[in-house]
Write a structure and sequence with these properties.
- The structure is a single chain.
- This protein has 17 helices and 17 strands.
- With about 575 residues, it is α/β, with parallel strands linked by helices.
- The chain has five domains: about 45 residues; about 100 residues, 2-Layer Sandwich (Beta-Lactamase), CATH 3.30.450.20; about 120 residues, Helix Hairpins (Orthogonal Bundle), CATH 1.10.287; about 150 residues, Histidine kinase-like ATPase, C-terminal domain (Heat Shock Protein 90, 2-Layer Sandwich); about 120 residues, Rossmann fold, CATH 3.40.50.
- It has a five-stranded antiparallel sheet. The chain has a five-stranded mixed sheet with strand order 7-9-10-12-11. Strands 14-13-15-16-17 form a five-stranded parallel sheet, sandwiched between helices.
- A hairpin with a 2-residue loop joins strand 4 and strand 5.
- Helix 8 packs across helix 9, helix 10 packs parallel to helix 11 and helix 11 packs antiparallel against helix 12.
């Protein structure tokens, strides 16, 4: 029999590490977890110590608790500990303007976080720096701390100041040169008056013609926004009227107004396109894309036109991937198809593509009256129109093919036309195929929803009161719930009053006080803290702006906005899951 003393527990048993202890069985796993935690702690410590941007933690009394070396270097201190011990009151010793710090605290108490907060900080030597902060308010039990990530933006602010000064100097130089040119022109006129009358008349006529030709493009480009704004408002109001039940006589008058506005819109758009092309303001931005994207769009856009004139329209599908500027290529194809439908009285139009080695010939065939051989050389000239019957469609002024010729020149894509009188014509543009190792994925196809809307909230921001009235009228008629505003602050206030988050944003680009639609989008997304589907409804046609819209993933409808396209766009956006 064992002695009583033999059953006495050992020290390991008492602390749970004996041979029969469950805790001892889990001790290796516990040790491993502790090692992992220590490794993770060391990793975060390394990131904190080696971060490129300044990081600090402070209490609500304005005293530092911790800071990383980057923050110390940014403020001109040798080490983080020196910074922490030297600064006892952040609002007075770190911020140039104490009110900036207190404003930051107010926003933190309200929102819990503040992004891209720009202010000025004091360095150890008394210098000031411009910074941008991302700040979080962190609360653990009764302890409230501020955690901030700080980036030095002094160089950016300095660049902006230099750019402003450069602009001012440039404006002064332009004014001086203008005055000098005015003086030279005065002297020139004095010399011309001394010449013989016949020579004076010829010189004056020549100068006037050259000045008119030069100013035409500049004027059209500069005035495009002011010209298109009222036309856009009128088009939207007429669209609302066309969808209402009216007497036959009134309906006829509305249709006549619609046709007149459509003709004016087409003429103005063509003139603006020619102006941009003549100024070399259009640049190609090629990329690889599936040609089927453009083909499907052509079918959707022109099928109602073909049906309305009793013509057939066939668009043959293709799996080819081409390398071009999709926007400019679409402009060429639109003109080809539009002309084909306009000059075809019976039969139809065929759009297809054929491979030619490393290139693809995109062709538009029609069964129209054809083009006489003596006219083929002139059809790409401005204001040149054929005398054939135009199938009752808007005739234009003969700028379509002139735009095609200049656009194809920008794309560096050859165009060709063949025609037989009374048999029809074929217009061809040759586009390079994309390299086989660069094939983009097909874009996602969203199922189109029912175009009968059910009170979805659409926020419209535009600085033109007539356009806001037109949009409000048209959208209400479609069954939507429109909110209209002239700027971001008004839009946010309306949404707060209505307690709604818009489903769609329709934004003008150029607003008052140098605000843009992109600025409005950023403020709304920051306010709602979510991405809201948006589209730009704008008269802006500059390549730089259009590239910006593409980078932001924004849909774009050029003013004057076609109501059908607007309705299709809204149906597409509202059909997508939120």
């Amino acid at each position: 029999m064992k002695k009583r003393s033999d059953n006495k527990p050992s020290f390991e048993d008492l602390i749970g590490l004996g041979d029969h202890s469950a805790r001892k069985n889990y001790y290796p796993e516990l040790a491993q977890k502790l090692d992992e935690l220590e490794t993770e702690r060391n990793r975060y410590k390394w990131l904190f110590e080696n971060a490129l941007h300044g990081i600090f933690q402070a209490d609500m009394k304005g005293q530092f608790r911790a800071a990383n070396p980057a923050m110390a270097a940014l403020c001109g201190y040798r080490s983080a500990s020196q910074l922490v011990h030297h600064i006892n009151a952040i609002d007075k010793q770190l911020f140039v303007e104490p009110k900036d710090y207190h404003l930051l605290l107010d926003r933190l108490h309200r929102d819990g976080k503040v992004y891209r907060y720009e202010t000025r900080l004091l360095k150890a030597g008394g210098e000031t720096i411009h910074v941008s902060m991302n700040v979080l308010l962190k609360q653990e039990e009764d302890d409230i701390t501020i955690e901030a990530f700080v980036q030095d933006i002094s160089e950016r602010i300095s660049d902006q100041a230099r750019l402003k000064k450069l602009n001012e100097e440039l404006e002064l130089r332009v004014e001086e040169r203008t005055n000098a040119l005015a003086a030279v022109n005065t002297k020139l006129w004095e010399e011309i008056r001394e010449r013989e009358v016949a020579q004076q008349q010829m010189t004056v006529a020549k100068d006037q013609a050259e000045a008119a030709n030069l100013s035409k493009d500049k004027y059209l480009a500069a005035a495009s926004h002011d010209l298109l704004q009222p036309m856009n408002a009128a088009r939207l109001l007429v669209a609302a009227l066309r969808e209402r039940a009216m007497a036959v006589e009134d309906n006829h008058l509305v249709e006549r107004v619609h046709v007149a506005l459509e003709g004016a819109e087409g003429l103005l758009t063509d003139l603006l396109d020619i102006s941009k092309l003549d100024q070399n303001a259009v640049q190609s931005d090629p990329s690889a894309f599936h040609l089927s994207q453009l083909m499907n769009t052509l079918q959707t856009e022109f099928q109602p036109v073909a049906d309305g004139t009793g013509l057939g329209l066939r668009v043959r599908g293709t799996s080819c991937v081409v390398y071009s500027d999709a926007r400019l290529l679409m402009r060429v194809l639109r003109n080809f198809v539009s002309n084909a439908l306009r000059y075809t009285n019976s039969g139809g139009v065929l759009v297809g593509a054929r491979k030619r080695g490393e290139y693809l010939d995109i062709q538009v065939w029609d069964s129209g009256e054809g083009i006489p051989d003596e006219c083929l050389a002139d059809i790409f000239q401005e204001f040149n129109q054929l005398a054939q019957h135009r199938n009752g469609m808007r005739t234009g002024v003969g700028l379509g093919l002139a735009i095609v010729e200049r656009t194809a020149r920008v794309l560096d894509h050859p165009i060709n036309v063949k025609s037989r009188p009374d048999r029809g014509s074929v217009f061809t543009i040759r586009v390079p195929l994309a390299p086989s190792d660069f094939i983009p994925s097909l874009p996602a196809v969203h199922t189109q929803g029912n175009s009968q809307f059910i009170g979805e909230v659409v926020l419209v921001v535009d600085n033109d009161s007539d356009i806001l009235l037109s949009m409000r009228t048209l959208l209400k008629q479609w069954g939507l719930a429109p909110l209209t505003a002239t700027d971001a602050s008004m839009a946010i206030k309306l949404c707060q009053q209505q307690d709604v988050v818009p489903r769609v944003l329709l934004l003008d680009y150029h607003l008052d006080h140098e605000e843009t639609g992109v600025d409005v989008l950023e403020q709304l997304e920051q306010h709602f803290n979510e991405r809201i589907p948006a589209a730009m409804l704008t008269a802006e046609r500059a390549d730089k702006s259009l590239k910006l819209f593409r980078e932001l993933g924004l849909q774009v409808l050029n003013k004057p906005v076609k109501p059908g396209k607007l309705r299709a766009l809204l149906s597409h956006i509202l059909a997508m899951p939120r």
